[in-house]
Amino acid sequence: MKLNKQKIYVLLLAFMMLAAILTGCGLSTDNNIKSNSSGSEDIPSEIPDFSLKDMQGSTVTQVIFGENKLTLVNVWATTCAPCMDELPDLESLNQAYGMKGVGFLGIIADGKYCAPQAKELIQELGISYPNLVPDDNFMDVFLSKQDAVPYTMLVDDTGKVLEFVMGSQSKDTFQKLIDDHLD
């Protein structure tokens, strides 16, 4: 049974990667911001409880959201060029907003299968905020609900999704998203 479940996840990952390639990994959809109050079914209302490993092997749980007023959560993949393009901007914003009560968190959609590549990319790009490797449960319960990467969520200190953005975004768009909720 476990083998069948693993095959399903491999097929799901392959489908997500194919969809990402065919859609240009979500392409740039700057300003495609959807507020959680819009009531759309495809926008998650919250990030479910989790206990995942970061790239250093440390366990990270949803408690991380309580460390800041806001957390920008970016879901990306190692095979996605638009994802790679926005990571340096996110790191720059992480440095700028770190003392203002804003945290940053990456979730590597293909991290379970591409952890060495992800770790190398994070090091090359100088990304200092935590990046998590999803387990099968988190993939099934949460990540499988979207069919392309990158996507980004701005969450409050309880993990409630305040804003959802599909596709690669500019630094200015991320900055406006944060600033609108810091006031």
Write up what this structure looks like.
With 183 residues, this protein is an alpha+beta fold. The protein is globular and about 50 Å long. Helix content is 39%, strand content 21%. It starts with a helix and ends with a helix. It has one domain (2-182): Glutaredoxin (3-Layer(aba) Sandwich). It is built from 5 helices and 8 strands, in the order αββββαβαβαββα. Residues 17-31 have low confidence and may be disordered.
- The low-pLDDT segments are 17-31
Within the CATH hierarchy, at the fold level, what is the topology? Glutaredoxin
Helical percentage:
25-40%
Mean pLDDT value: 85
Q: Regarding CATH, which class? A: Alpha Beta
Largest sheet: 8 strands, mixed
Tally of separate helices: 5
SSE class: alpha+beta
Number of strands: 8
Distance between the termini: 50 Å
How large a portion of the residues is in β-strands, by DSSP E? 15-25%
Task: Write the CATH homologous superfamily.
Answer: Glutaredoxin
Q: What is the total number of structural domains?
A: 1
In the sheet with the most strands, the strands line up as 1-8-7-4-5-6-2-3
